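Figure 2 data, in text form.
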Amino acid sequence: MKEYRINVRFNLENETDRMIVAYLDGLRGTQKVSRNQFIINAIYEQIVEGKRNTALIEQIRAVLREELSSISVAEISEEPSEPEPDFSFDVTDAEMEKNKDLLRAGLEMFT
């Protein structure tokens, strides 16, 4: 069997490194997994999960692009615009006389 060896050094002044060393030391003497195999599995999982996460992110982006492609977005101005009046205050003399006649006729009902 041909082996590839790598040395890993932990800084015991670093809290994370100390936590990892303590965990790896806890693996000693257990028949479940060797420290070497544990590190290999951890690296492998990191690589596989990284690929899965990248694929998942791309799938989410594709779904969002598809769903958002049919949405129309309008720009909202910061200041509300005043509504355009749809009526006029200009009254002709003929309309004024007609309105006075209608008012007189309405008041006659009360006399």
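Caption note: The mean pLDDT is 83.
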